């Protein structure tokens, strides 16, 4: 559940919908244990935006479980992940500075998509009209607070939701400026919009492949040293285009859970991603949810947990699982 209503989102639910529930902590623990058995490294926590502000049912559920809000619940889940030997990365939308500070204690990095720097997309008839958290000034403020708190951040844009190409370019430059000011953007995701059945934008065309690939190339040209990710499940036929355009990251692939944000898009086989990356001249490696060059921003107790699994480059040791 979520206090926002983005026109492209199939993830959010209203109380009473079949899929509307917060995952009980016991279920979270179960999934984490399964994830460890499947050799996962990262636990990605994603929630709606402050659902307790909109729905009393959510607030009472959280209180019954012993949490003052979604952020406390996520801090608890993140600690469980650490206890099971996984490394948490949380994206709960806009968080207050005290909540960012709380989650920095258990997360090696946090995520918040800028989506777009265009305020026009929040006007009537546009995808963010009913999503106050997606007003660019609000998102930029959270990303700046994260910079002041020295939290390694993953951000990104959603491409093809009705922005003009000028607005798409401005969004790339806005992310670059953030990083120039605070030096905390560890990674940028370029996510292509895919229409989800049943949503307000369900009958719109998805991001055009050529336009999206050009956005990727522009991001690479604007930020030669940035880590740039395209999720592999949303464009299964264009891997080599993205590699040529300049990405160096495929994001997470889960062996145990679907992509709850785009449930129609199955995760690819690792062997296929590996094979296509290799054919384009790249080597697929396993990373932690914090890039090595940002690890010094991570609290020392968390950093120490990574040490036994790390190779000389700060990536996950190839022989760790043998
Ligand atoms: O590296 C990240 N990947 C994130 N991803 C990317 C994910 O790995 C997938 O590649 C895409 O969601 C594909 O739909 C998310 C996926 C979700 O299903 C929901 C939220 C996110 C948010 C992040 C994030 O904060 N950081
Ligand atoms: C978790 C992230 O998933 C993205 N997201 C939400 N809905 C969609 C969709 N229909 N298609 C592609 N990406 C989407 C947003 O960018 C959000 O921040
Ligand atoms: S994209 Fe995020 S903020 Fe928007 S409705 Fe979905 S869960 Fe809420």
From TrEMBL:
CDD domains: Radical_SAM (cd01335). It catalyses: 5-amino-5-(4-hydroxybenzyl)-6-(D-ribitylimino)-5,6-dihydrouracil + S-adenosyl-L-methionine = 7,8-didemethyl-8-hydroxy-5-deazariboflavin + 5'-deoxyadenosine + L-methionine + NH4(+) + H(+). Its cofactor is [4Fe-4S] cluster. Signal peptide: none annotated. It comes from the Eukaryota. Its EC number is 4.3.1.32. Pathway: Cofactor biosynthesis; coenzyme F0 biosynthesis. Residues 1-233 form the Radical SAM core domain. It is an enzyme of class 4 (lyase). InterPro entries: Aldolase_TIM (IPR013785), CofG_family (IPR019939), Elp3/MiaA/NifB-like_rSAM (IPR006638), F420 (IPR034405), rSAM (IPR007197), rSAM_sf (IPR058240). Keywords: 4Fe-4S, Iron, Iron-sulfur, Lyase, Metal-binding, S-adenosyl-L-methionine. NCBIfam families: F420_cofG, PRK06245.1. This is 7,8-didemethyl-8-hydroxy-5-deazariboflavin synthase.
